[in-house]
Design brief:
The complex is a heterodimer of chains A (212) and B (258). Chain A is mainly α and 212 residues long. Helix content of chain A is 81%, strand content 0%. In chain A, helix 7 (124-158) runs antiparallel to helix 9. By secondary structure, chain B is α/β, with parallel strands linked by helices. Chain B is built from ten helices and ten strands. The chains are: A mainly alpha (212), B alpha/beta (258).
């Protein structure tokens, strides 16, 4: 049986696992955006936080994903359910690109524009929301795009701890030594990643401010 | 006399020094009174401390020692945001917000000051006319304008909430000579009508004598002289002479070569 026949025969399950995959990635990205963007803004305001914050996010990123899932297993409440655990780990992985791009985006705003705004009497809040964040939006979306594509790949590994998603097929296929089953997980995951990349890339271009 | 509001200087520097940590003095022991309605030019070469002096007035920089008074009140007693909103600020790089239309750029301070929308619209139109631009461009974005048009918008934006004080940091420095002369002429006409207190930074001697009612020559963080335009033109002070010579020699050399 080739992979297409497998997918057609199991289309309900493929759809379910794909949805589960999207849900894991989506929820993790929501949490990562809620945490990462404010952190990225914070380190532009308090430069002394810059190294510890970016350093920690960097360290998290270097931990192999399977090990991170394992580390979090004993955590209370979180460790009790595989999906919670997966979402926490995935959120942590997504932080680095979000923090880094928010920081770089704001720092990349033309200093003359920021100075003019400050000189005209904008409060820090007005400067942030009316000038810096809108002008950094393209770069921030680029960070969201990188993080999303990264998470779609990483989420396949979350199946190893029973969190579900398309990784189920990959691990099942590996155990059965069946390429068709592996590909039934890998192909939809790759398609999701491509779709996210193209969609967010389009958004990034749409929302990037006009070049001066 | 000190207490009479009309004789009170608009801006006053009292023994002001600015010395960011570790480095030497960028501005050293500056004493200066800027009168209401005058155009005071801070003239000097790069690194002489003129831009720093300007930024001390709207508190983009804080003095290390000494005191600056605006309208007779020390800056530290001012609400800094309020202070900045009554001081128009024009810089060489202009700093228009690239994601805002011209209308929103000019209307920014009125808008955050909660003016009514139709009052803002009228004011923007009035200002575009004032700086010699077609009000039609209000809906355009900065990148669609020429350098000269952008700088005019920069001036209009600084004037939006009708601030009594205007700080201008080499506002015409990046323009071609013709546009530059045009904007200088327009500035003079504008200033005759508006009578703002203007502090104008430039390194260009010609610009200084065209625009300034008084000229302060700065060198290495210190104010070397402070003279009216006429005094300055006839001054025999060594540093003033040196500055004038440099410009004259340039001019002469160019003539000889021609």
């Amino acid at each position: 049986m080739n992979v297409w026949q497998f997918i057609v025969q199991n289309h309900v399950e493929v759809a379910e696992l794909t949805l589960e995959h999207v849900w894991l990635v989506g929820l993790s990205m929501v949490f990562a955006v809620i945490v990462g963007i404010p952190l990225g803004v914070a380190i532009t305001r308090w430069p002394s936080l810059n190294k510890p914050v970016l350093g920690s996010a960097n360290v998290i990123q270097t931990i192999p994903s399977l090990a991170l899932f394992g580390f979090l297993l004993p955590a209370p409440w979180i460790g009790a359910r595989a999906d919670r655990l997966a979402i926490l780990a995935l959120t942590l992985y997504a932080l680095l690109p979000l923090i880094r791009n928010t920081y770089a985006g704001i720092k990349g705003v033309d200093p003359a524009v920021v100075e003019a705004g400050r000189g005209m009497g904008l409060t820090d809040r007005q400067l942030l929301f009316q000038v810096e964040l809108p002008l950094a939006l393209g770069v921030i979306i680029a960070g969201i795009r990188v993080a999303t594509v990264l998470l779609i790949g990483l989420t396949t590994i979350a199946a190893a701890i029973g969190a579900g998603g398309l990784g189920e097929y990959i691990f099942r296929g590996l155990a059965m030594v069946n390429n068709a089953v592996i590909l039934a997980g890998a192909i939809p995951a790759a398609a999701l990643a491509l779709l996210a990349d193209v969609g967010l890339g389009w958004l990034e271009r749409r929302l990037s401010p006009h070049a001066a | 006399m000190e207490s009479s509001p009309n004789n009170r200087p608009a801006i006053e520097f009292r023994r002001v020094s600015f010395r960011p940590n570790g480095t030497g003095d960028i501005v050293q022991d500056l004493n200066l009174q800027i009168r209401r309605g005058e155009t005071l030019v801070l003239l000097g070469r790069s690194g002489s401390g003129k831009t720093t002096t300007l930024k001390l007035i709207n508190h983009l920089l804080a003095p290390t020692t000494g005191e600056i008074l605006v309208d007779g009140r020390p800056i530290r007693e001012w609400d800094i945001i309020r202070l900045r909103r009554m001081i128009g600020y024009v810089i060489q790089e202009i700093g228009l917000f690239p994601h805002f239309t011209i209308e929103r750029n000019i209307g920014l301070v009125p808008r955050i000051e909660n003016w009514a929308e139709d009052r803002i619209r009228k004011r923007v139109e009035e200002l575009l006319n004032l700086v010699g631009l077609d009000p039609q461009i209000a809906s355009r974005y900065p990148h669609e304008l020429s350098g000269g048009q952008r700088q005019r918008v920069g001036v209009a934006r600084a004037l939006a909430a009708d601030p009594p004080i205007l700080l201008m940091d080499e506002p015409f420095g990046a323009l071609d000579p013709l546009t530059r002369a045009e904007l200088q002429r327009e500035f003079l006409q504008l200033q005759t009508r508006l009578q703002k207190t203007v502090v104008f930074v430039t390194h260009d001697l010609h610009e200084a004598v065209i625009l300034g009612t008084r000229i302060a020559l700065m060198e290495a963080g210190q104010m070397v002289t402070l003279q009216t335009r006429d005094e300055f033109l006839t001054s025999r002070e060594p540093l003033v002479m040196a500055y004038k010579d440099a410009f004259d020699t340039n001019l002469k050399n160019t003539r000889e070569r021609a």
